[in-house]
From TrEMBL:
Stated name of the protein: Pectate lyase
Main location class: secreted
Organism this protein belongs to: Sphaerisporangium flaviroseum
Subcellular location per the Swiss-Prot or TrEMBL entry: Secreted
Family to which this protein belongs: Belongs to the polysaccharide lyase 1 family.
Gene3D superfamilies for the chain: Single-stranded right-handed beta-helix, Pectin lyase-like
GO molecular function: lyase activity
């Protein structure tokens, strides 16, 4: 029987407590008495629906359902993926095996693109949610490995709203691994593994694209930013952006950057060996606003903060994991093959 996500998180936390106890004298007996780890604690039971902004009732949509209620198809080639991703109406598109594509495939509204098992991969190109004439609203992308993209691995753009990017593995692209821009809104980015790349996730097109003001409401939670250099995320104009329970490790340039009056709430994350965990303003971009609380900075620098930020709880409810448990919880649950 599948456990709930919250039950799995409690199990993962218990396992982390046990490991910590094993490192201390006398810790074995006390840990076993206090918090035994159930069998299967390392196997994640993922959410069936998104947490965060993708769950919000807004813009004529009550949450994000993707292709629910539509036809289920399985694709094994780039041409088939492009065909079904661009069709009108709801589709559940199952990606089986490794698919080679040459460019960005446009994904239009009401699609779920789901990897089968742990070997689904899109390589050589990426997915672009919507065009200027065909919106990419109500889209779910889960359980897929993205490698070697010729541009972005995933681009949420052109006013796409209600998007859930969950349990993917993204690496070795050309530009951004996951960029969200051009008036997109109500997006959740959860349980993804970003690695072997410099630019992880841009949020906001450019300093001059002021149409993003009042948009770009995004939740980032339980992602593993594993050795990526920058943009975890780099934010322009958006408020609120909610960044919670993510694991940052060995990020060479910086963790998070809030610029151009963006408002970012950063809470209960774990920063390990990150010299500049949070910037207020970056490069030629003007300063944003940041509120941080409950984070841990291990072998890391001092975060910059400024101003106040709208509370995400005015939009949705959520439960925080303790920051100390984030490395074990995120490493156990993020990436492909976990749902």
């Amino acid at each position: 029987m599948m456990t709930t996500h919250r039950s799995w998180r409690r199990a993962a936390v218990a396992a982390a407590m046990l490991l910590a106890a094993l490192a201390t004298p006398g810790g074995v007996a006390s840990a076993v008495r206090a918090a035994p780890a159930p069998a299967g604690a390392a196997v994640a039971a993922a959410e069936n629906t998104p947490i965060g902004f993708a769950s919000v009732n807004a813009l004529g949509r009550n949450g994000t359902t993707g292709g629910a209620g539509g036809t289920t198809v399985t694709v094994t080639t780039g041409s088939a993926l492009e065909d079904y991703a661009g069709r009108p109406g709801p589709y559940i598109i199952q990606v089986s095996g490794r698919i080679q594509v040459d460019d960005m495939i446009t994904v239009v509204a009401d699609k779920s693109i789901l990897g089968v098992g742990s070997t689904a991969e899109i390589t050589g190109g990426g997915l672009q949610l919507g065009s200027t004439t065909r919106p990419g609203n109500n889209v779910i992308i889960r359980n897929i490995r993205f490698t070697g993209a010729s541009d972005d691995s995933i681009s949420v753009t052109n006013k796409a709203h209600h998007v859930w990017i969950d349990h993917n593995d993204l690496s070795d692209g050309y530009d951004g691994l996951l960029d969200i821009k051009r008036e997109s809104d109500f997006v959740t980015v959860s349980w993804n593994h970003f690695h072997h790349h410099s630019k992880a996730s841009l949020l906001g097109h450019s300093d001059n694209y002021t149409a993003d003001i009042g948009k770009l409401r995004v939740t980032y939670h339980h992602n593993f930013f594993d050795g990526t250099d920058q943009r975890h995320p780099r934010v322009r104009f958006a408020e609120p952006v909610h960044v919670f329970n993510n694991y940052y490790r060995d990020n060479a340039l910086y963790g998070i950057a809030s610029t151009e009056n963006a408002g970012v709430l950063v809470e209960n994350n774990y920063f390990q060996n990150v010299a500049h965990p949070i910037y207020v303003g970056y490069d030629k971009s003007g300063p944003g606003r940041v509120v941080e609380r409950g984070n841990l900075y291990v072998g890391s620098g001092t975060p910059q903060t400024a101003g106040t930020v709208a509370e995400p709880r005015t939009y949705y409810s959520y439960t925080l994991d303790a920051a100390a448990t984030v490395p074990s919880v995120v490493q156990a649950g993020a990436g492909v093959g976990k749902i």
